[in-house]
Amino acid sequence: MAPADLPRRAATMIRAVRAAVSIAAIAAVLLGLVADALAAPNHIALQLRSKFNDPNAGVADAAFSPDGRSLITLVTDSIQVPDGPTPAPVTTKTVELWNVRTGHLDWTLQDADGRISRALFGPDGHTLVLLVDDTVELWDVRTHQPITTLDACSDGDVSCPDQRHDCLQDQDDCMDDHSYRQAAFSPDGRTLAVSGRWGNSYSAVDIWDLRTRKLVDTFPTGLPDGLEATMDPDGLYFSADSRRLIGFGVVFGQYGLQSALATWDVSTGQVLAQTTFGLDRAVNTFDLSHDRRHLAIVYNADRQAVVEIWEVASGKMDSTIDTGAGDVNAVAFGPEDRTLAVAVDDNSILLADAAGNRPPTKLTGPATLRFAAVSTAAMSPDGRTVTGVTYDGIALLWESRSQQFIAAKTPGCAKKCAYTGDVAYTSDNRLLAMVRQDGVIDIIRLR
């Protein structure tokens, strides 16, 4: 090769290398777009199928672990057992622990008597908490072995209604059923509060120290407002400082059933504040803000749905949100508590200013999409994604900032596998779990 040809050949090689780099870059971009498309919210990353094929089986609880790597489900199944000439239905419960990365069912725990009422992760993510009658069972998620049972009565004794911790040796001496129903962990991870109902006239909260695993206090949920009422909490929450316990539920009093909000001092059980809503405010759905300072309630008045924001500490109403809807099916606070997602009866979700200073904006689907009213609403931990599930089992997703419709997800099968409305986000906003009526859980990749 002549020396004069070397610069020309070098320039040609450089151009070829640059072209190859450009092609590689374009290919990388295209591959990235494909990956993004596969990771879009209409893509099912995993399907978790329970071992139950019985159409009567359903998922009662579904929750991600704090690190988002595991999912716990509580499956309820109805079976027929021989009872004389005709079979009798018996409800069984099964706890299932799923590996979200692989979709593998790592562990199952069967409860043939159906005594488990709740299944949830502890704050450390390594402890599984089961509410079983009037006890709390702690299990190690990693070894699948029991850690301990939190039981106010020891040595085989049982506790009875109206005698919460007067432990008796014979179950026959107890006149009514008793069971834990709600549980809440304090933000500092040191305390577990569990509420339960004993008989038809007594509700109580037990406070457990998770470090010593000892019962440190128990107090009735009666409200000293002259109603001679006892409160059965539907929701139980700690305040941000772990010093107060907030309960919202139903009061059984001399005026019938009424909704009520109460705050107790965790250390003394004293009622610090209470609000008993009148009979004209029959609350059909509610949500507590993440900072535990405000409660959103929904009730119907004169055939018009009313959404009110109440201050927990004072029991006073802060604002009213005008939805213009005849019915509101669900409310959910956004992560910063400034926005409220409201599922209304005209097949849409409203994003409302929780302070009531601005009119709500409406999230709707494509005009060609036909679906029933939205029954549930949820917002991702970062507030970017809004999820609604319709009464006919279609999941709808929106991007909250742009208010753009993202996708409609249908299971693609008969009504028995429509979405139930039970959804759960991972804390890192990457995954969304949606429960189907046939017990299958679809894991949707959001990011």
What structural class results from the helix and strand content?
mainly beta
CATH architecture of the domain at 329-447: 7 Propeller
CATH topology of the domain at 329-447: Methylamine Dehydrogenase, Chain H
Q: Taking strands numbered 1, 2, ... along the chain, how are they ordered across the largest sheet?
A: 16-17-18-19-20
Form type: globular
Helix content: under 10%
Report the top-level CATH class of the domain at 329-447: Mainly Beta
SS strand fraction? over 45%
The Rg value, from CA coordinates, equals 26 Å
Low-confidence stretches: 6-40
* Number of beta strands: 35
Number of helices, counting only DSSP H or I runs of 4 residues or more = 1
Provide keyphrases for this structure.
447 residues, mainly beta, Methylamine Dehydrogenase, Chain H, five-stranded antiparallel β-sheet, 1 helix, 8% helix
